[in-house]
Amino acid sequence: MDCKLCKLPTPVPPIKSGDHEFCCIGCREVYKHFGDDVFVARSQKPSAIEAITPEGTEVFFKIDGMHCSSCEILIERIAENIDGVLSAASNYATSTAKIIYDRAVTDETKLVELLSVTGYKARHCSDASSPDDDNRALLRVITATSLSAVIMMLYLAFFYPTNLGLVDVNDLKPMNWLAFRAAPNAMLVLTTILVFYVAAPIFRGGLIGLRTGVLNMDNLLSIAILSSYGYSVSQLYAGSHDLYFDITAAIVTVVTYGRYFERGARAKATKELSNLMQAWTPVARIKENGTYKQCSIDELKPGAHVFVLHNEPVPVDGIIMNGQAAIDESLMTGEPFPVTRNQGDKVYGGAVVVEGSIEIQVGQEIESQMDVLAHILWNIQSSSGHKRGLADRIARIFVPAVLLLAVIVTGGSLMAGLTPEAAFLSGLATLIVSCPCTFGLAIPLATATGVSTGLRRGIIITSADTFEKPVHFDTIAIDKTGTLSTGNMSVQDIIGNDEMIKYGAAVERLSSHPIAEAIARLDHQLSASDLTIHPGRGAVAMVEDRQVGVGSRQLFATLQWQIDPEITASAIKAANEAGNGQSVISYVGWNGQAHGAILTRDQSRPHWQAIVDRLKKTSRVALLSGAEHASEYHSHIDEVFTGVPPEAKAAVIRGLLAKGSVAMIGDGSNDAPALAAADLGIAFGAPTVLAADAADVIIPGDRLEKIFDAFEIIATTRTRIRQNLGWALLYNAIAIPLALSGHINPLFAALAMSSSSLLVVWNSSRPIAKSSLPTSPIEPEINIQNQIKMRSVKV
Amino acid sequence: MEFTFYYTAIVIGLLGSTHCLGMCGGIVGALDVNAGKTDQKGLTRISRHLAYNAGRIISYSIAGGIAGFIGLLAADFSLGSAAPFGRFIAGLFMIALGLYLADWWRVLTIVEKAGMHSWKKIQPLGQRFLPAKTPMQAFGLGLVWGWLPCGLVYSVLALAAATTSPLNGALIMFSFGIGTLPMLIVMGATATQLMKLVRHPVIRQLTGASITLLGLYICMTALSH
User: Helices A217-237 and A436-456 sit at what angle, rounded to 10 degrees?
Assistant: First the structure.
């Protein structure tokens, strides 16, 4: 045994206190004195902290004033020092922070206040950014431009001609006062303004770097600016004509410009999300004692009826009880056309009623698709992606290394007998030319653009890691129900009486399975409670004090309920009449026996052949189906796995993984394990939290062809990240040796460094082209729900 | 002679403290937990740790002074003949410590148990300083915890007694305390890696063996007088 406290071996017999064993009296006394705190402290070493996911309330903030990746570290550190904060993560590219806090200790308002320190300003994610900040940044750019223009003119008139040897210094004698007194002092004043006003954010960044112990570009720039400025000032008072105010001005101006554009690019990359959140402040209208009143979502009770009028957003997910409306679901699905939703259809919180008005009933869980969506998105945007790995590590050692190089080169040049000016200039150039920011920007900005582009096209990328995944797959596995088929089951045949239909519909209304949704549409009179879902088999719930089960033969076997062979016979007969074996039989029963059966059938997604053909150009296509037969798909698909229950799908994927890389496309809830098992999981359908956890990409709505767009976005972003990193390495590998050897002057160095950053910013933020592969002409969706009206009911 | 003693005390502190890393790390960690989230700023935290260690070292020095005084009394009563004897005892203590650290023979546990009597009287005082949020409280806690029954401390106390001078005894214990500082301060930063290293049996046996040899050397010098 090892000592509970210090892990050294214990003697035999060990020294005990309570249940714990210690190696020595000392350790035992420490434990007796401090209690369990001593173990807590031991386990809370940095490596362990990340593994613990604390339980708490999650909140997202926009943080103004973040301008480098050191800020991520500082913000996280500030947040974690606040009482009640359990964990914090932040992302510089999106200026977002995620805080998990203990509601008993603190609240959001306090957090906003406590986070708004050292130049940061936190605000709720739904608050608009303050235009002040934009104006201030612009004012800095304008000041920098105009002041450096004046400084450059003075240099052109009085300094460059003599520096370059075009004019002899003695020729300036006639305008002695102007050239040696007025011009240098004017430049001193102008440069001072540049250094202390325009460059203030750079110094602030430098201080943040110092505070966090992770040096950044701002540290290098601050040293360069201050040393060139200080050197020039001392030269000025020494009466020398060798002044480097031009270099100071150039660094400040070029960097300020670069930052301004970078800021714009970052704002653009996160605009989608900001717009999305600002529009979302839901209020529910309910009927109470005959009058309508508005209330917040939190006040709603399960099963409440909510009324949504023309031009209003649907506040929560629910099922239409009354009315019919055209609904714009573009926020959830990226689908630009409004769709018609009728009584019995599901509507999502966050969709907007464009025409008509509806009364909806909320389910057991009061949730809104919009909140789920927002949660998923904020999560991606606020995590800085700790897997940045290499780039992050490079950036961390990069700055100290450059500083060291600059010192060595300056000292070396001096010792080698160069003039102090030459030594100073090559040291300065080394500081300025190196560009660690390209490393810092390379991944986060490209990722933010990828996520944002996806969002605009109705594709949700759930984690930054997705962009690090391969884009070619040996096998693409597709789930049948809900993916290759529409998943909109329709009732084909009914064996049984009205009572059976009523009961069946009541139970199924609580479940979200496609079959359940079809059956639920049959009737709206009764309501059920105490639902138990048997995954892949069916559901059981209480209706009018009866336990009613709806589901497959296996469900009834599990419950040990009887199925009358007559019902089975007529169900199979009806299924066979339909032909191709796609029908699903759901038995409905209570009091220990089946009272009837409902046959539902699935429909192939329109144009599925075209989509499969396109996938087959690059990969083998496999189909996974829970049904026993999938005959109509055989001809098109390379490999068909039938009769795979939901829990076995992951195993099938693992089998495929043994042969090569696999992408899985399936629905986010039933296929979650399979999606998680695959190299790339694409969840098709509603963006649920479960789907976001399991899948790398979520495609809401019913446009399967969007997977190509998703592939395109991932591939392009991945290419860009690599280009950026490649460029950063190449640039620094060439520029730093040149600067060290004194071939680059500081002015050019400042330009080169800023252009390099801007190149990366531009490359990351340029729009991603739409999938270039030929697309099949796909018409706007056919409203399958309408077909339910044509159902035949046999009693 | 005294120089050898100081040197030995520092070495014991330096090597021996690897043994206590887990334990003292627990105390230091508990200080942080006690202080809660609010007081984790770098400066407060460091000054709290420093204050704790300062308290501990002051207690050691006082104990060293007392031990030196006892040594002086013994030497006076025996008219000087006890001095080499005291050094020999100190050497034996160090050998025992070395064997203990190497986990070869835990004879020193007996002495630790004997120390429990006084510790039981002192320990409740420590409760007053809990939770140790301010550096002053941490200092007080250090003062109390300096008296923890610890084989390491007792061995060096034997050395302090062997100097037969309260002042030298106090200085010996002070040197020992200083010797323990590097490990305990470094441990805040790189705890996990360091812990793995010092827990390694080879490292522990090497440490133990070196201290045993030091003890043997002191015994031999005592005999040769």
Answer: 130
Residue A134 to residue A753: CA distance in whole angstroms: 24
Q: Which residues contact B111 (CB under 8 A, 6 or more apart)?
A: B96, B149, B151, B154
Chain B: closest CA distance from residue A431 (Å): 29
CA atoms within 13 A on the CB side of B84: 8
| 3-class SS of residue A595 | strand
Query: What are the angstrom distances between the C-alpha of A634 and each of A483, A613, A638, B90, B155?
Result: 16, 13, 8, 89, 84
Dist. CA A393–CA A214, nearest whole Å: 11
Asked if A61 and A123 count as a contact pair (C-beta separation under 8 A), the reply is yes
Residue-wise pLDDT for B158-217, tens only, equals 888 888 888 888 988 998 988 888 777 666 545 556 666 777 778 788 888 888 888 888
Place of tokens 């045994």: A1
Which of B33, B97, B194, B198 has the most A C-beta neighbours within 10 Å, making it the best mutation to test the interface with A? Answer: B33
With a cut of 70, list the residues of chain A below it in pLDDT. 1, 37-55, 68-69, 125-133, 163-165, 169, 172, 174, 269, 271-281, 330-337, 381-396, 435-437, 439-441, 487-488, 512, 578-582, 627-634, 668-669, 686-689, 771-795
Is this complex's ipTM strictly greater than 0.90? no
Contact A40 B109 (CB under 8 A): no
How far is it, in rounded angstroms, from Cα A729 to Cα A435? 9
Our answer to whether residue A218 is catalytic in this structure is no
B197 CB neighbours in chain A (<8 A) are none
Q: Name, in order, each residue with C-beta under 8 angstroms of A420's C-beta and a sequence gap of 6 or more.
A: A414
| Window B:107-166, CB contacts with A under 8 Å | 109, 112-113, 115-116, 119, 123, 126-127, 130, 148-151
Cα gap A779→A174, rounded to integer Å: 82
A31 touching B (Cβ < 8 Å):
yes
Of B19, B25, B115, the CB nearest to A42: B25
Nearest CA in chain B to A28: B23
User: CB–CB of A92/A73 below 8 Å?
Assistant: no
Q: Given 3-state DSSP classes, what are the helix, strand and coil percentages for chain B, each rounded to the nearest 5?
A: 85, 0, 15
- Listed by start position, the domains of chain B span 2-224
Q: What is the pLDDT of residue B59?
A: 92
C-beta atoms of B23 and A24 within 8 A: yes
| Chain A from 93 to 112: CB within 8 A of any B CB | none
Q: Which of residues 722-741 of A touch B (CB under 8 A)?
A: none
Query: From its phi and psi, is residue A625 left (phi > 0), alpha (psi between -120 and 50) or beta?
Result: beta
d(CA A513, CA A686): 12
| Cross-strand partners of A639 | A622
Give yes or no for a cis peptide into B131 (omega within 30° of 0). yes
The answer to whether the beta carbons of residues B178 and B73 sit under 8 Å apart is: no
CA distances from B176 to A26, A461, A560, B75, B210 (A): 18, 59, 78, 23, 16
Nearest chain A Cα to B110, which residue?
Answer: A25
Lookup: tokens for B200: 């390694």
Which helix (H) or strand (E) segment holds residue A415: the answer is helix A390-415
